[in-house]
Amino acid sequence: MTGPMLETKNLTFGYDQRSTLFDGFSETFTSGEMVALTGFSGRGKSTLLYLLGLMVKPDRGDVAINGADTSLLGDAARARLRAQLIGFVFQDACLDSTRTILDNVLETCLYRSEPRSRSRSKALALLESFGVEGHVDSRPGRLSGGQAGRIALCRALLSDPAIILADEPTGNLDAASAEIVTGAFRRRAAAGAIVVVATHDSTLVAQCDRSVVL
To answer: Global pTM?
Structure first.
């Protein structure tokens, strides 16, 4: 079976007419590779992840997944495609402080219209594999940055996504937690996923197959 492919085609985007971040940007990300997005702050690394993740629409050009353009899809169709194929790790963990850790991990079931009960055992196994199983009934308020980062990774990996997009995933982590996160990305790429990380972390960049400098 052919693995996923993610492409930008002549992508143009700016938040206003005076600040164009991308002008005809084209790049291909293929199955089994882990790619670092690098460059100075403000060059659009996070924005490119949002474009790749179908959270933001380009002004012109397109993002294609497995050869299929997404520019003509409505918001609901883009959301369904994102839920089916993409796992996102945000720059901060973005955990809901009003919900338990287990509920935070299971949150993505809602977007896939999947019963939470079906994924509960897998969520618990992921939390155990990343050493945060003791917090399943707790709320995120007292977690360390490393713990929160690993829980956010569990949430992103719950659906075995074909595409993983991560925004500075090791930026707020201690060295041990950063190594755990990087190892998880490498294993997902080895299993055939596309992993794209926006990062300033030279250690993480060294673990990637290649870099795209913005």
So the answer is: 0.92
